Please model this.
Amino acid sequence: VAAAYAAADAAELRLDIKTGEIATLLESRTTMAETARAEETAVAAEASKLQLAAVELQLGAQRSEIATLNGQAALAVATAEAAGVRLSAQTREIEVLKEQ
Model:
């Protein structure tokens, strides 16, 4: 009988050890899953930052292009105005020559 009790106690002890090991493994897996989720969130946040930086670069390039186009438009206006002034001067010169 004592041997049976000892065997039962040993079996209960082994069961407790196995239960503890299983609990430790479950806790470890939970921690690993939480870590993986945190890393995934960090990667997604970094990807969002990179996308934002890319959009900001595109916006800067578009602003530069707009500034260039504005400069070209201003040059075209100035050229047209200068041509108008030359035309006016030539028209006056023709009028003066006609009067002579």
Observations:
- Residues 18 and 24 are 10 Å apart (CA to CA).
